[in-house]
Design goal:
- This protein has 359 residues and is α/β, with parallel strands linked by helices.
- It has 15 helices and 13 strands.
- Strands 9-10-11-12-13 form a five-stranded parallel sheet. A four-stranded parallel sheet has the order 1-6-7-8. The chain has a four-stranded mixed sheet with strand order 2-3-4-5.
- Strand 10, helix 9 and strand 11 form a beta-alpha-beta unit.
- The longest helix is centred in the first third of the chain and has 17 residues.
- The radius of gyration is 20 Å and the shape is globular.
């Protein structure tokens, strides 16, 4: 049985548009025109379609389309007016705040999440680590999930999630996991923080939080006997994450760095010394191949997601899909291009049989 250690199950509520079916943007626009919606927020747009604001301005209802990395969105003028925005593109926190206002709620959201959990079970997944706000966490507490769920609250929500555990008491299939903090964005959105500029832009991306603030948060969480989950993709962001963990003088094992896509050999060694757990996505190499080359150039693209190097150096490693796509078999086959099947199953198998690091 597999463990998918990085999911966002609520994204399934935004996946009503079958973006994978469309090879030309004209086909997608015609499909969207036929929906006759009051408004639409949909996840999974591929950058390669080249959708422009002008394309979706031809639609007569407000539209926000999230690219498949979940870190950038494009909106038409109708959605700009509805949200009170000036630009046709949103990234990072501003994007997620907009999505939070527009996404399904209550019973509808619950149905999407639990349909996804049933799909996971059919794929042979016995546990998911799901990133949640307190509203999604409440859905899990009020409905028995069909498999084990490790709740991964965003930092802004973690105290409310703790209150839910106090209110509802023990739940056999629910555990509290790591607390999520974003250090940077994504390579495809050019918001991951790099040590050197992107190949096709002058920017190095951007930090979502300062190193000093990270140190404060890590210390705060350790006082609560909680571990942090640091989203850090670029080599610059990974450096900041490791610096913060060192400066916080962490005492707990298995704080996590999510993705670590451009991690260097030296950074892997530092993570190993700090007993940091790297949660990586082997499926990204298959899913984002051309995007990596365009954004980073061929040489840096070869360094991306070095799961074989992490394994060889002996740092702690666990795998998750990040819903890109939500298909454990796709991810396993991609991982097997770099590691033996036995190792792939181990890293997708829950990492440690001892779960004492979960609350």
């Amino acid at each position: 049985m597999f463990v998918d250690a990085h999911t966002h199950m609520e994204l399934l509520a935004l996946s009503s548009v079958p973006f994978h079916r469309f090879k030309e943007k004209g086909e997608l626009i015609e499909y969207l025109r036929g929906l006759k919606k009051d408004k639409l927020v949909a996840y999974g747009l591929d950058y390669s379609l080249g959708i422009t604001p002008e394309d979706i301005n031809s639609l007569d209802y407000p539209v926000l389309l999230l690219y498949k990395d979940g870190h950038k969105g494009i909106l038409n003028d109708g959605m700009k007016k509805l949200l009170g925005k000036r630009e046709n593109f949103l990234t990072e926190k501003e994007l997620w705040e907009a999505v939070s206002l527009l996404k399904p709620r209550g019973k509808e959201l619950r149905e999407y999440i639990f349909e996804g959990l049933e799909r996971a079970k059919e794929m042979g997944i016995s546990e998911v680590h799901d990133y949640v706000d307190h509203k999604v966490a409440k859905i899990y507490f009020e409905n028995e999930p069909p498999l084990n769920v490790v709740l991964m609250p965003y930092y802004e929500d973690y105290r409310e999630v703790l209150k839910l555990f106090e209110r509802y008491g023990d739940r056999k299939k629910l555990k509290l996991g790591w607390v999520k903090v974003y250090v940077d964005g994504s390579i495809s959105a050019r918001t991951a923080y790099l040590k050197e500029p992107y190949e096709d832009t002058e920017t190095r991306g951007e930090l979502s939080i300062s190193e000093e603030r990270l140190v404060e948060i890590i210390k705060e969480l350790e006082r609560e006997n909680l571990r942090i989950s640091l989203h850090a993709i670029g080599d610059g962001a990974i450096e900041v994450a490791l610096n913060a963990l060192e400066k916080a003088n962490v005492s707990l094992k298995y704080h996590r760095i999510e993705h670590a896509e451009l991690i260097t050999e030296k950074q892997i060694e530092r993570a190993k010394e700090l007993n940091v757990l790297l949660c990586m996505q082997p499926n990204f190499n298959c899913y984002y191949g051309d995007i990596y080359v365009k954004a980073l150039g061929e040489e840096r693209a070869k360094r991306i997601n070095p799961i074989d190097l992490v394994d060889r150096l002996g740092a702690e490693l666990i795998f998750g899909t990040d819903m890109m796509p939500f298909d454990i078999n796709y991810a396993v086959e991609c991982a097997k291009k770099r590691l033996t099947e036995e190792k792939v199953i181990y890293y997708f198998g829950g990492w440690k049989s001892d779960k004492s690091y979960l609350t």
